[in-house]
Amino acid sequence: MKLGVNIDHVAVLREARRVNDPDILNALWVACQSGADQITIHLREDRRHIQDVDAYNIMKHSTLPVNLECSINRDILNIVTELKPHRATLVPEKREEVTTEGGLDLFGYEDEIAYAIEFLHDYIIPVSLFIDPTIEAVEKSKELGAEMVELHTGTFANIFAMLNSSLSHSNHSIKELELSRNELSIRLEKSITDITTTAKHAKKIGLEVAAGHGLNYHNVYEMMKIAEITELNIGQSIVARSVFSGLTDAIKEMKRLTSR
Questions:
Q1: pLDDT digits 0-9 by tens, 107-149
Q2: Is 69 a catalytic residue?
Q3: Rounded to an integer, what distance in angstroms lies between the CA atom of residue 208 and that of residue 218?
Q4: Which pLDDT score, from 0 to 100, does residue 191 have?
Q5: What's the distance, Cα to Cα, between the start and end of the chain in Å?
Q6: Of residues 42, 49, 152, 201, which has the active-site annotation?
Q7: Candidates 49, 152, 201, 213; catalytic one
Q8: What is 2-257's CATH superfamily?
Q9: Which stretches within 18-84 are classed as H helix?
Q10: How many angstroms separate the CA atoms of 153 and 132, rounded?
Q11: Which of 49, 69, 152, 208 is catalytic?
């Protein structure tokens, strides 16, 4: 299993005060030295964390492959072709969202996504599509010409968190807790099945498979059971853990959990 360490949230801390502290290049260096297999960053249209100069410096100095997440906005795509990352991962963006809320709408924006893939391929940049874990999305990704898909695990992560939260709430009756637990357990099992089935189908039709969003030290073991998933991209939970343990130890611990 490859671990892509997303260092966006280091830039989030920096942008909170609009100063150069913490330095994103320090985060890059620590990730490279601590067992990460690739660096993942998201150059958003609104530049809320990673800035153009960050992306340029990371590409210049990284000793690891860089997975650059981006929208299908043509101005952004032009920057990506200048940077020439190891891979571009196309993701949906909404200005008002706190974080990415789901996979690409492959059917509603088919022409725009097809153009983006062809444009990036012209510059010899492999493309991954960030998609919801459905067979239909995988089939469309293959049709559009992507080499890889990254399965959105946000729904799984949210249900996992709700289930574990419900176990600790004392202001419900035992009966209510049991009902909630059972319902959430069923939903969690379905979510894991959806991811597993989709990953298997993607692998079968020749796509590489990654997964990401909401994965952390408590739930990542479920993704490790799915042999077809060969890469995980994790950021927020690693940076959150680093507040208490330091970034080096946070990455090493995640790498230990994601080693097969």
A1: 999 999 999 999 999 999 999 999 999 999 999 999 999 999 9
A2: yes
A3: 25
A4: 97
A5: 6
A6: 42
A7: 213
A8: Aldolase class I (3.20.20.70)
A9: 24-33, 52-61, 74-83
A10: 8
A11: 69
